[in-house]
Amino acid sequence: MDITSFSLSNPWRTGRSWVVPDIERNVTSELVNWLEDPEILILAGARQVGKTSILYQLINRLLQSNLADAKDIYYFNLDFSSISEFLHDQGAFLRFINAEKIRKAFVFIDEVQRLPDPGRFIKSLQDLHLQIKFILTGSSSLDIRTKTQESLTGRKQVFRIEPLSFSEYLKTIPGLSSLPVLDPQNYRFYIGALNDALYEYGLYGGYPALVLTPDREKKILRLNELFSSYLEKDIAGFLKVENIPAFRNLTTLLAAQQGGLVNIQELASTLGLHRETIVKYVHYLEETFVVKQLTPFFLNPRTELSKMPKIYFADQGLRNLAMGNFSDLRSRSDIGQILEGIVANHIIQNSLVPHKIHYWRTKSGAEVDFIVSAVKPVQSVEVKAGESKSATISRGYRSFLSKYNPLNALLLNNTTWVKFDIGERMIEAIPTPVFLLQESDKVRSSLLTAR
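RE: above sequence
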């Protein structure tokens, strides 16, 4: 192993100064709670979404809380080929970290999928029951699952790392980084600034490097480089997709119809591809954390659509890049699609593990954007892009509420926060940015599996 590369990546071991990433991620506290448990922690997320920064935050927490000495913390960056090759030899690895010592070693491995058989490598070490805590990252759900799933079953906790949420994004904005608890009495003091921040967030997205870039032209250039790198390394490199232009064109089509019903056969005809190829490409987009699919909620398949999914981009900046449109959201006809995409990701990230997220639509066209359900619906959410001077809901939403009676019904809008009754059902109209600041303090859907 090139010891210089290792030393430069581990400044705490040599006493050199190092910078802890500024943006504190919400998931960091969840991960800290697992540091003293035996399970292997896996952080899965797209490239440049901030996984390495989270590792450094965890290392800083270990040092600040005296849970580990600097010499007991090892960070291996597998982007360095010499380090990747070194981790092929389990014996050399155990000798290097002095595995027989009494104090626990914390081993961080970045981009673990670069190992030829990471699941087997880690499993055999884990099964020795040594004082070693593994924290791993990976950039592809397919990579992680195919290379670790069987070997690490029952030994791991997987956390999905997303771009910055809206609440995390606000931490970077002076004046909004330390908001008080908002309620219907005080929110009007902040709603203008919050909506401005939401439109900016909806334009460029939540990738940390872009958020911290003040120059707008550089934001777009960096976003373009991020997507080009994704196509080169994940799609062409790992997944061996040869028709990259077709893959890019599909991404553009999906961006244009975000929040609409996805007709696979229609996409195949438009692009001149086989249906099976479209299905495969959409699967790749989902498993590499670019898009998320929602399926319809239904109890009676004879009266409700049940086949076509809806697709939302995990980051609206990437969606705007695919569209080639970075004009001001206030003047755009697709602002509703963008806000709906932001809300979709928020609901998915903050739902309790047993809950499922769907949309609802009948054959007659009645529709509700999001349904959170267990056995029955527990929450319904409709997103409106414009100002709502009077809180009113659509006939389709009324139909859903009458039929399913969810525990909680929301109408998201720009400015209004009020509760009102529709028959015997209470509805809460709430500004979208205020809703996006509400996060579950329980186990969230970022915890993908407890197996």
